[in-house]
């Protein structure tokens, strides 16, 4: 076995027995992986029996250690991941695997993440294969990925499930994030990718509804606020220029020719002005997103956890 343990960061909130099932499923996979592991469970200020159940749990595998931290207040899923990474960084972790604790991230993918052929990769993302959500959810997810690619130029076909090395961990701890996957997609590092099907949630009820996905999608664009800002700024400049040309055409037709001004000209100019104003509005929203991201990054660097075990 290698001397440095692999740290697994997994957030939870009011998971109850679902979390115990997930940890039990991890046990045989990690036991046979030939490495030392420290599983860091990040309790996101649960208000049910999750912590009590967790404190009474222990891995049977001798090479797996359980570490528990609880957050002082609820940070949300992404915030809980960040706090777990802060803690892992404080332990001088060299390799960290991030995965959800609801069972949708398949533990069987972990040996693949640790394959020595990926040793030179700074980030190994687990791309999502087959999904089990409703058709409406899958369709919206495809549309979202397409929009994300058009605006950012990056393909976001993976979630939180990944392995990162010390360099990426330190960068992430320093910069913070609002959307972990989008944050990783911006890193200029060596990366690799494996594919794993999404498993059904262990309790059978997915917490990620369509409304949650939309909210989650907006958070990913916050990570690309600068790029989003430039897209709408360019659109505004193009439309403003087109509007000026249309107005000049109308003035020319009115003053220097006997031609009647066609209805489409005034309609088109009005439409272009409206769209230009909308783009300017999005530009202002982009500036606000940048400001929000900056404030979140400063606030996010603060450790807000209590080590239980």
Automatic annotation (TrEMBL):
Keyword Transmembrane appears in the UniProt entry: yes
Highest taxon, organism lineage: Bacteria
Residue ranges crossing the lipid bilayer per the database entry: 228-252, 272-292
UniProt keywords, alphabetically: Cell membrane, Glycosyltransferase, Lipopolysaccharide biosynthesis, Membrane, Transferase, Transmembrane, Transmembrane helix
Any GO BP: lipopolysaccharide biosynthetic process
Pfam families per UniProt: Glycos_transf_2
Gene Ontology molecular function terms on file: undecaprenyl-phosphate 4-deoxy-4-formamido-L-arabinose transferase activity
KW Transmembrane (keyword) present: yes
Entry-linked SUPFAM superfamilies: Nucleotide-diphospho-sugar transferases
Gene Ontology CC entries for this record: plasma membrane
Protein name: Glycosyltransferase 2-like domain-containing protein
């Amino acid at each position: 076995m290698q001397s440095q343990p692999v740290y697994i960061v997994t957030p939870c909130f009011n998971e109850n027995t679902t979390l115990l099932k997930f940890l039990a499923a991890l046990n045989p996979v990690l036991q046979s992986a030939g490495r030392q592991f420290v599983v860091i469970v990040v309790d996101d200020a649960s208000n049910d029996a999750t912590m009590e159940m967790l404190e009474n749990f222990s891995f049977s595998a001798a090479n797996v250690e359980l570490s528990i931290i609880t957050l002082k207040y609820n940070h949300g899923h992404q915030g809980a991941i960040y706090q777990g990474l802060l803690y892992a960084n404080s332990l001088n972790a060299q390799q960290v695997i991030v995965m959800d604790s609801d069972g949708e991230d398949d533990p069987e993918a972990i040996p693949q993440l640790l394959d020595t052929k990926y040793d030179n990769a700074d980030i190994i993302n687990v791309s999502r294969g087959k999904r089990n959500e409703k058709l409406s959810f899958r369709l919206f997810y495809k549309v979202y990925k397409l929009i994300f690619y058009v605006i950012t130029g990056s393909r976001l076909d993976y979630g939180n499930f990944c392995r990162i090395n010390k360099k990426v961990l330190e960068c992430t701890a320093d910069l913070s994030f609002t959307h972990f996957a989008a944050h990783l997609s911006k890193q200029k590092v060596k990366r690799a990718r494996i594919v794993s099907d999404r498993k059904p949630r262990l309790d059978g009820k997915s917490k990620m509804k369509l409304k949650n996905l939309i909210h989650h999608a907006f958070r990913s664009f916050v990570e690309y606020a600068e790029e989003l800002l430039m897209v709408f700024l360019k659109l505004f400049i193009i439309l403003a220029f087109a509007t000026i040309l249309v107005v000049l055409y109308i003035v020319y037709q009115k003053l220097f020719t006997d031609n009647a001004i066609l209805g489409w000209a005034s309609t088109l100019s009005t439409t272009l002005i409206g769209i230009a104003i909308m783009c300017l509005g999005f530009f202002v929203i982009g500036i606000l997103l940048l400001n929000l991201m900056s404030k979140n990054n400063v606030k996010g660097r603060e450790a807000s956890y209590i080590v239980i075990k």
